[in-house]
Amino acid sequence: MDINATNGPLAQTEADWLIVGYGTIDSAESLSTPLLELDTALDGAIHRLATSGDITGKLGETHLLADVPGLSASRLLLVGLGTTSELTSRKLEKALVTATRRISKKTSVSVAISLPGLSCDAVSDEDAANLAAIAIQVGCVGQGLYRAKPARHAFSTGTVISSAQASDAAVNRGSILGQAINLTRELVNRTAMEVYPETFADRAAAAATEFGLECEILDENRLQQERMGSLLAVAQGSVKPPRVVVLKHNGGGDGAPALAICGKGVTFDSGGLSLKSNEGMKTMKCDMAGAATMLGAMTAIARLNLPVNVIGLAGLVENMPDGNSFKLGDVLTARNGTTIEVLNTDAEGRLVLADVLAYAVDLGAERLIDLATLTGACVVALGEEVTGTFSNCPDWSQAVGQAAERAGELAWPMPMHDLFGDLIKSDVADIKNVGPRWGGAVTAAKFLERFVDSTPWVHLDIAGPSFASSNKPHREGGGTGCMVRTLVAAAESLA
Ligand code: BES
Ligand code: MN
Ligand code: ZN
C-alpha cells in the first residue's frame, strides 16, 4: 500500500476514513487545531461533543462520526492523544494503531491521518508523521491469515496530513518500516507447515531480489563443509533439511561488513527428545522470530539505502524428536572447534546460533547483533514486552540500547558476570548446553559469547515481546515485529 504525505487542508482531504488525533481538551471554548478546523467544517459539531464530554482527548479514546457532510472524507474517527506535553512516541503509536485497527474491518478502505502540530519535546512532527505511516501499514494487517473471513483488511491507500518540514521523507521511512514489520509478522504468523527452512530461505531469496540484497543459501552439504556441527545436530531429527541464509547490503562500498545481524530460525521447536508439554509447544511456530526480524530489518536497510555494509544471517532448522534425533549426552563440535555436551535438546537455539555467530565472525563482521526467542527465563525476568540485552562490550551495548530508545522500543541490559559462565562448564566437553534453572537467560547468553571471539556483540532475547498471546485494541496478537526498527536504527548509527 502506498502512503502519501500532504499538508492539508483537513476538510478537503478525500478518504473513506479521516483519523484526527487531538490532545486533551481543556475547554470547548478553546479548541486547538485541528479540532477547530474540523469544528468549522462540521458546523460546531466538535464544540458540542466537547461540551457534552463525549470527547475529552484522553489518551486512546476513540469517537466515530459516520455522517460528516462538511468534509470531503466520508467518515471521521477522532482519537485522543492525552496531554500533548506528556506525549511520547510509544503513546502516540498506541493511539494511532488503536485507530487504524478500528477501521480496518472492511475491504479496500482508504485512510488519512491528521495530527496536530504537537510542539512537544519528545515527539517531533517528523516522528509523528513517521509513526502515522507505520500505524497505517501495521494496523490493518491481522493474524487471521487462514480465516475465510479475516477480521482485518489492508487499506487501499493511505495519506498522512502533516505540517512537518520533511514529511515526505518521514512518511516514506515509516511506510518502509511498517512493511518490514509486517513481513516479519507474517512469517511468524504462518504455520510451521508452511514456513520451514527451505521455504523460509526461498522467501528470503525473493525478498532479496525484490529489494536489491545479495543472497546466498547454504544447504546441508555446504553446512557440512562449513563444519557447522552444532546447527546440523539440531536439524537431524527433522525430515526438513536445514538452511543458512546470508543476505548482504553493500551500502558502504568496499570493505568488511560493519554489522552482522544473526537470527535464530527454529521454524518449529518441539523440544526434540526433551519434548515440550502441549502448553509449551502451542506457540512454537514463533521460534523463528529472530530470523524473521533479521529479514524484515534487512529489507528496510536496503530500501532506505543506508550507507553502511550490513550482512544478515538466519540459522534455519526444525527441532523434532525422531529415531535420528540428536540425543542427551551427545558431544557436538561447533564450527569454531568448541565441543558441546548436550544435556537438553530443548536448549537448541543456542546450538544453532553458535555456528551462525562463528560464521559471521569469519565473514569479517566488525560488530554483531543476534536475535533469538531464546529462553522462557528471559520472559520470567522481564515480562512479555521488554527485550533482554546481553553483551561482551559496554560501548556497543549502550549504542544498541540508544538505538532501541530512538526506535521507541523497550530493551533492558542484563548482567554477564563470569560466574554465569562457570555454570555451563562440562566434565566431558568444553561446555554443556544448559546450566541450572536459575539465571537461565544469562547462562544461555554466556553460551553464545563463546562463539563471537572478541567481536563487539549484543544478544537480544525476544522470547517475550516477539509474539503476543492475544489481541489488544492497540496491537494485534501473534507476531509483533519488535526490534525491526531497533536494528535499522543500530545500522544507521554505524553509517
Ligand atoms: N524456544 C524456546 C524458548 C521460548 C520459550 C521462546 C517461550 C518463546 C516462548 C527455547 O528453545 C527453549 O526451549 N528454551 C528452554 C531452555 C531450557 C531447556 C534451558 C526454556 O526456556 O525452557
Ligand atoms: Mn527449545
Ligand atoms: Zn527454541
Quick structural summary:
The protein is of the alpha/beta class and 495 residues long.
Task: Describe the fold and architecture.
This protein has 495 residues and is α/β, with parallel strands linked by helices. The chain folds into two domains: 2-166, Leucine Aminopeptidase, subunit E, domain 1 (3-Layer(aba) Sandwich), CATH 3.40.220; 182-494, Aminopeptidase. 35% of the residues lie in helices and 19% in strands. The chain contains 16 helices and 19 strands. The chain has helices at residues 35-41, 45-52, 89-102, 125-139, 167-189, 197-211, 220-225, 229-235, 278-281, 289-303, 349-362, 376-382, 394-407, 418-422, 440-449, 484-493; strands at residues 3-6, 17-22, 62-65, 75-80, 111-114, 158-161, 214-218, 243-250, 259-269, 309-319, 331-333, 339-341, 368-372, 387-391, 411-413, 431-432, 457-461, 467-468, 478-479. Helix 3 runs parallel beside helix 4 (125-139), helix 6 runs parallel beside helix 10 and helix 11 (349-362) runs parallel beside helix 15 (440-449). Zinc ion is lined by residues 266, 269, 287, 348-349. Ligand BES binds at residues 269, 287, 344, 346-349, 373-377, 379, 434, 440, 463.
